[in-house]
Write a structure and sequence with these properties.
The protein is of the alpha+beta class and 341 residues long. Helix content is 20%, strand content 38%. The protein folds into 2 domains: 125 residues, no CATH class; 148 residues, no CATH class. The protein starts with a helix and ends with a strand. This is Lipocalin-like domain-containing protein.
Length: 341
């Protein structure tokens, strides 16, 4: 009886604690106040979708370390010889300008205007000049402290008299991207190359921060007219307008995959001119790894098995571990879209 009585007391307490824990909201970092982000912020390279701006004092004292730590985030085609200076003044005026990293000299004319912070978004509105139209950029503040301000650009609009041009809208891009994923679907066809020479049957991978878009080389006799114009553009290797990135053509690293028999992966890459000793067309290199295609769970795992990974491969796949898993979002015989896990 004592045990039953004790259970009658404990069970409601346990249930109540579970309900409370389920209803408890996760802790969130408070949004920054305007005065918290006034000052000069430095971005290594050019503006991308996700950007880490460093406080000016920290940049001056630790520039080399910062650039090295950010190198995994800076994409292959990024201008590593430049930095972007964003000055958010206390009177809600701002200037932004490109500078040469070696000389600290201005690379181009400064853009100036007004800024405001509301609903955890930073909005920059540049004044129009004879040379430039009005420019509005909207960023989500994804993280901040006294050393780093992380901004994700979600919208950019340029406008002239009676004319507005939406250069970039993340929500629209995401919608296009989701529609293409839905159209492609996921088949379970084999990936193994059908070309014993491995020269005419391969996948070109455009590797972004979170997404990987792979397109398979197709012959002239293959008819893809049944697909939408958007998907045909993707198949022919023009994915830039359909990806949820600010400057996708600059924010990707590319290479080639051949899925060989026995789970062997041939990664073909271009050897840097300085390394190959040739000018003009870069020489080709091959790095061999392994892959595991989990059809049931729509997963792909790539492993870099050889201990010495070429620098070009490291830039294309800047992961700190030697094995990387991806969720397969879409797959047919011509296109695959993965998401890094």
């Amino acid at each position: 009886m004592k045990v039953i009585t004790l259970l009658r007391i404990l069970i409601p307490i346990v249930i109540l604690s579970l309900v409370c824990s389920c209803n408890k909201k996760p802790e969130t970092k408070p949004a920054p106040k305007a005065q918290n982000i006034t000052g000069v912020w430095i971005l290594s390279g050019l503006l991308q979708t996700n950007n880490s701006f460093h406080a000016e004092k920290d940049w001056k004292n630790n520039r080399v370390t910062i650039m090295k730590s950010d190198s995994a985030e800076i994409f292959y085609n990024q201008r590593s010889d430049l930095y972007t200076k964003l000055d958010l003044k206390a009177n809600n005026q701002f200037t932004t300008q490109l500078f040469d990293i070696k000389t600290d000299s201005a690379f181009d004319k400064a853009i100036s205007g007004t800024w405001k912070l509301e609903n955890n978004q930073l909005k920059l509105s540049a004044k129009a000049t004879k040379e430039q139209a009005n420019l509005e950029q909207i960023f989500d503040v994804t993280d901040y402290n006294d050393k780093v301000l992380k901004l994700k650009i979600i919208k950019e609009v340029t406008s002239e008299v009676s004319k507005s041009n939406p250069n970039y809208d993340l929500a629209d891009r995401q919608k296009k991207f989701d529609n293409i994923i839905k159209e492609i679907g996921i088949n379970q066809n084999d990936l193994t190359t059908k070309d014993l020479e491995y020269s005419s049957d391969f996948w070109t991978v455009n590797n972004f921060n979170d997404h990987q878009v792979l397109t398979r080389r197709i012959g002239q006799d293959e008819d893809i007219s049944k697909y939408s114009q958007d998907l045909q553009s993707l198949i022919y290797g023009f994915p830039w307008d359909y990806l949820p990135y600010y400057e996708p053509i600059f924010e990707n690293r590319s290479g080639r995959f051949s899925f060989l028999p026995k789970s062997k992966l041939d990664i073909e890459y271009q050897i840097d001119g300085s390394a190959s000793g040739w000018c003009g067309t870069p020489a080709q290199g091959h790095y061999f790894g392994t892959y595991h295609y989990d059809k049931a769970n729509k997963l792909m795992e790539i492993s870099f098995t050889e201990p010495k990974i070429p620098q070009e491969v490291q830039r294309t796949f800047p992961y700190r571990n030697k094995s990387q898993k991806y969720q397969i979002l879409a797959k047919n015989d011509y296109v695959m879209i993965w998401k890094k896990l």
